[in-house]
Structures are given as structure tokens and as C-alpha cells.
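Q: Here's a chain of 147 amino acids. Please give me its 3D structure as C-alpha cells.
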Amino acid sequence: MPRKELDFDNDLFVFETVMRVRHTEVDIGQHLTLESLTALVTEARARFLYSKGIKEINADYQGLIIDELQLNIDSRVRLRDQLLFEIGVEPLYDNGGNMVIKATRMHTGETVAKARLHFLSYDFRLNKVTALNNTLKEALYPHLVNL
């Protein structure tokens, strides 16, 4: 399968968080596993949403679900590496959009992974995709509201 490169404009990134690779996240060769990297990307996304005041599920039983993940690994990550995760959102559409994440080594700045997470607004009570409400749009992509 051909590899589809992920290229993002640096001006998309609006949030940063740092995480250190733990013993439970590496394989026998002391490298970060794919499953653990996916979990770190998920944690970075959760921290970003929390910083924006977005709950997993709101009082109306609505929330964001991830329905697609593209993850490119550019470099091996070792035990105790400290990773900087930068998160941003590409332009939204009616019921969703894409979050972009770049992971780099803190001390060298070397990019180790990039991810694009496609998300949808979902109503868990009705069990269907819904339109993004204005509160979510403003929290995720404030420059859209300021146009």
C-alpha cells in the first residue's frame, strides 16, 4: 500500500502538551509500540479538548467521535524520550473535521510522528451523526467565527 504523507501548516497548531515514554509503552527492544503511540495521540487529543472546555459527552448526550486515524511514524521512539505533541484543527465542515497532531522529540526537535484524526459530531441518544453546534465550532476553530 502506498504511503500517504501528512503535511501540515505550522500555523494550524494551537495547543501543546508533553509526555514521557514509560516502561509499559515499549517493546522488548525498548522502542515505543504502535499501540502505545496511538494511545499517546489519543491522550493528547483528550488534553486538547479539555483545554477547550469540550466534554466527552455533554448534557444533551452529544460528543465527538473519531471515525478515522491516519498515523505516520517518521522515527523510532525510545524509552524515556520526552515527546512534544502539537495539536490543531483543519477547517471544519457541517458535522465534523480533522484534528492534526505532530509529535517531536523535546530536546532535538526531530519529528517522530504525525497523525490526522477525522472526527464527527455524534448524538449518542439518537445514535446518529449530527451537525456541529456553534459552541463546538467556536471552541475548535475560533478563526471561523472571527471571519
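Q: Can you summarize the key feature?
A: The chain has a mean pLDDT of 93.
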